[in-house]
Amino acid sequence: WDETHFGKMGSYYINRTFFFDVHPPLGKMLIGLAGYLSGYDGTFPFQKPGDRYEQHNYVGMRGVRLCRLFCAFLGSCLVPFAYLTVLELSKSLPAALLTAFILIFDTGCITLSQYILLDPILMFFLMGAVLSMVKCNSCADRPFSASWWFWLSLTGVSLAGAMGVKFVGLFVVLLVGLNTIYDLWDLLGNLSLSLVTFGKHLLARVLCLIVLPLALYMAMFAVHFAVLNRSGPGDGFFSSAFQSQLIGNNLHNVSVPE
């Protein structure tokens, strides 16, 4: 059922048809982009679960072969992400390998990753945020180095991605936030650091973990509204003034009093 739901929304992006959904737009936009780049023309109706795709080129959105394509590729990335995270935390190769094998043979992950769903996209950004956070922590002995900035910024990008797919991404934001509070508290208690240096640490985290994710999150909606410029099933959720900007709407280009 969910594949019918989100596949249809991918088609909406390809056809630039406005719609409304409870989830943020990033996951559906990426599904639509994957379909567009693989030659899907957005004409499949996605009317009910189990409909045959027939001649429609669905493969770019529903990666079912060799984990090469979009959702399957993102799902397959969970294995190296988990391996690297556990290896960094435990410094134990057997523990990291065990973690990777558990995910490789997890039927749930395999199943979720082969359909047009938001789940593999969400898990990709969740795991990416955790891995980046752990890698940034490992660079604590060389703050403000290129690798430290890279992993800190990548953590912020991953947070924006997780929040941009589903609001459940707030949980990884909470995790990174608690980790950041712990780091800053530890730095504040380090009497060998000046307040100026501590201020630099605080500012770096504000920029990379608050400002950057918020900017990216807002940019997703900017792209969402720029792409979906044609009248569709989501018109009624918005004001008449907004509907007047949608091509094909009955109010298009009509002067609407404020």
UniProtKB/TrEMBL annotation:
Its main location: membrane. GO terms for cellular component: endomembrane system; membrane. Pathway: Protein modification; protein glycosylation. It is found in: Endomembrane system. The chain crosses the membrane at residues 66-86, 92-109, 116-134, 149-182, 202-227. The keyword Magnesium does not apply. Keywords: Glycosyltransferase, Membrane, Transferase, Transmembrane, Transmembrane helix. It comes from the Eukaryota. One of its GO terms (molecular function) is mannosyltransferase activity. GO terms for biological process: protein O-linked glycosylation. Residues 1-229 form the ArnT-like N-terminal domain. Belongs to the glycosyltransferase 39 family. This is Protein O-mannosyl-transferase 2. The lineage of its organism: Eukaryota, Metazoa, Chordata, Craniata, Vertebrata.
